[in-house]
């Protein structure tokens, strides 16, 4: 019965949106042309000959949680039919957009696989800008920059073109210049644990500025300073071990 309700909701939302992404997703998910299902819905009086939901069709659709965002943010086991349905039942006060966000946040907090986390972060940023939740976008872009610049100590500092495009998109959407972002980034960095960071807070801010202004010479110099500091720290860590071996 639950599966019938799910596919019914999906079918009716496909008719409502008349979106190519819905048709493609239905084809890939259920391995048949959705048009045959639409014809069945017409025979049952749910869909009119003009491809619009009838009153009965709307009543049926309204009784089932909203699922229209699943194909847009689909991640197996994270954003799928059963996850969205289950969370929607537990949190009936949430709109469909916030259900998607809560599921993404929950997955990010409980997943340690770098590849999976990358997919989740990508979907979070996609959600931020597409739903115009710019407060989320600010935090998520800063989190991405911190991670890319070695804030967690798991990778060498580097920003790719995608990272810089996201930053520029945030600046444009918020009508900020780079100085305004740096000021907010500085405040955000003060609350972050920098114990394993490969750059200092100020160096992170510098790196972002140099990346956006395409100052490669300054990036190289900053990288050299960071590498030398890491080398000195490694020597300091090894020195007690060396001294102990000399005594023995």
Secondary-structure map with pairings?
Elements: H1 2-17, H2 20-30, H3 34-43, H4 55-62, H5 70-73, H6 81-90, H7 96-109, H8 114-130, H9 134-148, H10 161-174, H11 178-190, H12 201-212, H13 216-247
Helix pairs in contact: 1-4, 6-7, 7-8, 8-9, 9-10, 11-12, 12-13
Structural features:
mainly alpha, 248 residues, 0% strand
Structural write-up:
With 248 residues, the chain is mainly α. Helix 7 packs antiparallel against helix 8 (114-130) and helix 12 (201-212) runs antiparallel to helix 13. The protein has helices at 2-17, 20-30, 34-43, 55-62, 70-73, 81-90, 96-109, 114-130, 134-148, 161-174, 178-190, 201-212, 216-247. The protein is built from 13 helices and no strands.
Offer a concise description of the structure.
The protein has 13 helices and no strands. The protein has helices at residues 2-17, 20-30, 34-43, 55-62, 70-73, 81-90, 96-109, 114-130, 134-148, 161-174, 178-190, 201-212, 216-247.
Q: Fraction of residues in helices?
A: over 70%
Q: In whole angstroms, how far apart are the ends? A: 75 Å
Q: What is the 3D form?
A: elongated
Mean pLDDT: 82
Q: What is the alpha-carbon Rg in Å?
A: 25 Å
Number of strands: 0
Query: Which runs of at least 5 residues are low in confidence (pLDDT < 50)?
Result: none
């Amino acid at each position: 019965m639950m599966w019938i309700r799910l596919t019914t909701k999906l079918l009716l939302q496909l008719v409502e949106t008349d979106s190519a992404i819905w048709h493609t997703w239905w084809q890939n998910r259920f391995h048949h042309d959705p048009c045959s299902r639409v014809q069945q819905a017409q025979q049952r009086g749910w869909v009119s000959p003009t491809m619009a939901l009838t009153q009965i069709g709307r009543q049926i659709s309204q009784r089932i949680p909203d699922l229209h965002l699943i194909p847009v943010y689909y991640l197996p086991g994270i954003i799928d039919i059963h996850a969205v349905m289950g969370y929607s039942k537990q949190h009936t006060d949430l709109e469909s957009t916030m259900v998607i966000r809560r599921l993404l946040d929950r997955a990010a907090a409980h997943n340690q696989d770098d590849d999976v986390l990358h997919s989740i972060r990508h979907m979070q940023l996609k959600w931020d800008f597409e739903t115009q939740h710019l407060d989320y976008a600010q935090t998520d872009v800063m989190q991405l920059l911190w991670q890319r610049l070695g804030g967690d100590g798991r990778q060498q500092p580097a920003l790719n073109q995608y990272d810089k495009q996201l930053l520029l998109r945030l600046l444009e959407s918020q009508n900020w210049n780079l100085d305004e972002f740096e000021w907010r980034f500085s405040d955000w960095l003060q609350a972050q644990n920098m114990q394993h960071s490969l750059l200092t807070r100020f160096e992170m801010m510098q790196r972002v500025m140099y990346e956006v202004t395409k100052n490669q010479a300054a990036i190289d110099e900053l990288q050299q300073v960071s590498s030398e500091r890491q080398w000195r720290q490694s020597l300091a860590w090894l020195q007690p071990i060396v001294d102990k071996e000399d005594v023995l």
